[in-house]
Automatic annotation (TrEMBL):
The keyword Metal-binding does not apply. Pathway: Cofactor biosynthesis; pyrroloquinoline quinone biosynthesis. This is Coenzyme PQQ synthesis protein B. PANTHER family: COENZYME PQQ SYNTHESIS PROTEIN B, HYDROLASE C777.06C-RELATED-RELATED. Residues 53-273 form the Metallo-beta-lactamase domain. May be involved in the transport of PQQ or its precursor to the periplasm. It comes from Variovorax robiniae. InterPro entries: Metallo-B-lactamas, PQQ_synth_PqqB, RibonucZ/Hydroxyglut_hydro. Keywords: PQQ biosynthesis, Transport. It comes from the Bacteria. Pfam families: Lactamase_B_2. Belongs to the PqqB family.
Amino acid sequence: MRITVLGSAAGGGFPQWNCNCRNCAGLRAGTLKAKARTQSSIFVQPDDGDDGVLFNASPDILEQIRSKPALQPARTLRDTAIAGVVLMDGQIDHATGLFMLRERTSPLPLWCTDPVEEDLRSGNPVLAVLGHYCGVDRHRIALDGTSFSVPGIADLSFRALPLSSKAAPYSPHRDNPVEGDNIGMLISDGHSGKSVFYAPGLGQITPAVFDAMSSADAVMVDGTFWTDDEMPRMGLSTKTARDIGHLPQSGPGGMLEWLAKLPAATQRMLIHINNTNPILDEDSEERATLARADVEVCEDNMLIRV
Ligand code: MLT
Ligand code: MN
Ligand code: ZN
């Protein structure tokens, strides 16, 4: 399969519009070796064929589509390579882009869990609003390990895993988690036999999550924060990484410890990187630590073949 990273940043993007942290200020000033990033989304295509599946619809989706001609194959007067949209949660950075797809000429094929559908019909009623435009052809993502496929996308199948992370701040489940608020996805290519585990928001690695990660040829997992107290230490928030559903990379029980336990051949990638994370600085000690651990930092426009 081919995975195009459309947006590798967490909510807010990099640089974030109102932020003057070391990273954001350094990128604007041209004094930091780092790349700008849009908000969290990937596009997954089988080895053959133009059409693919969009994972998450970022607020930056129009810019992401414009900069990737592959997403606009121009076969008909109105066209798209997006055969369907799959949501990992109902967070603003993953769902707001749905508004931008309203000019479709047929209902938008959308896969999400029940709790996410509920949030997107009430707290942030994008699905209800889209009913006045193209409409939504919503498919339920099951949480019992059943695989699904997306019509028109041969070879690829998808299996969701409920994750411990966080529903969006507007959700009634923000502090009372419900199974399916957040999911990870095992994406399998029946033709090549290869698979990828994708989880941009991952707060806790349970045995089931670690099994899925271990079974995959590549993992693209939560790269939001380097340290648990990254935001409080910078005076930007009172909440830790874990408080808001993101497992930090460093420290005891952190993502790097888990990634080190995967089979040696597994391709390890971090995605959904917050603008405060020192790994964005390509000259940083933290980035060197990742390189030594064979962990890649996703950037926008990266093409990954698995
Ligand atoms: C998150 O991943 O924690 C959220 O997307 C943050 C946000 O809403 O910007
Ligand atoms: Mn997010
Ligand atoms: Zn910043």
